[in-house]
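Record pair follows.
FIRST:
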Amino acid sequence: MNQPKNCRHKEIADPYRWNATTIGYAVRAKARIEAAPCLLYAKANPLFEYMAANSMTLDKIIVNTRNVEAEIKEEFDGDFEVEVMNEPFKHFGIDEAIFAALEKEVRLKGGSRLFIVAFFSVNLIL
C-alpha cells in the first residue's frame, strides 16, 4: 500500500511502522478513489510485522515451505538469510517443549516438580 498524498506523516515510508492515524489517512484516501464494495485496508502479515520490528536482531529465518521463503525474500530484498527446513519444530525440540508444558506435572530446573490440578467450585447462595 502506498503512502497517501494527504498524510501528515510523510517521513514514514515503512507501512509496518504506520500508526492508527496514518492508516486512517490511507483508508480515507482509498475510499475516495475506489467504488464500493472494496477492501480499504488489509493488515500486513504478522510474520512480516515481527520481522520488520525486530530487523536489527534477526540474522536468519527458518521456514518450512518454499512459498514463505519466496515471500520473505521478495518483501525484504535479502535482508535476512532464509533457510527452508522440513520439520523445524522437531529439529529444535519445540514440539516436545509444548507437550511438556501442557502436562499436569511440570519438571522444574532444580529437580522439583509442580503438579497442576484443575478443580471446580460451585457456590450456592440461597
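SECOND:
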Amino acid sequence: MSVIRNRDVRDEVAPLIGSIYYIAPEQINGEELDPRTDIYSMGVTLFHLIARTVPFTGNNILSQHLWDPVPIQKFGRDVPDEIIKVIEKCMAKDREHRFQTAQEIIDRIEKIELQLLGRNTTKQDIYDITPIMGVSNMDTILVPEQIAKEEDY
C-alpha cells in the first residue's frame, strides 16, 4: 500500500474523477475500481450514442447513477431490445451483474449482429456509416486490434 508522509492512502478521501454523467456507482461510493467500472461508463457512452442524450440529467445525477433504473424510454422504437439489454447489463448498479470483461460485450454484440444482419459487420459497413457519424478521416476510427485489451489494465 502506498504511504505518503507516513499516512496510509486508504484513509484519505479521494476526489471523484471524471464526468458525473459517466461515473459508475462504485466510484461514487469510494470503492475500489476495476475494469467493470469502465464497462459501466462504456454502457453510458453507448446509451448516449444511441439516445443522443446521457441517461441521467437534472438534479441529483449521482443519486440517479446509484438508484435509478436505466431510462430506456429515452430510446427510439427502432432500437432493438437486444441492444437495450446490452446497455442495461453494462450499466447494472452492482458490478457483479455487469459484463465482466470487454470481450463478453464484443461477443454479445457480434451475436446480435448475426441475429439482426445475418452476418458480422465488415470493414465496408464501417466505411458506409462514417459520413453519417460525421467522420471525415477513417484513421480516426478504431479497429478492434487497437482497442485496449484487458491485460493492459
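COMMENT: Confidence is low (pLDDT under 50) at residues 1-13, 140-153.
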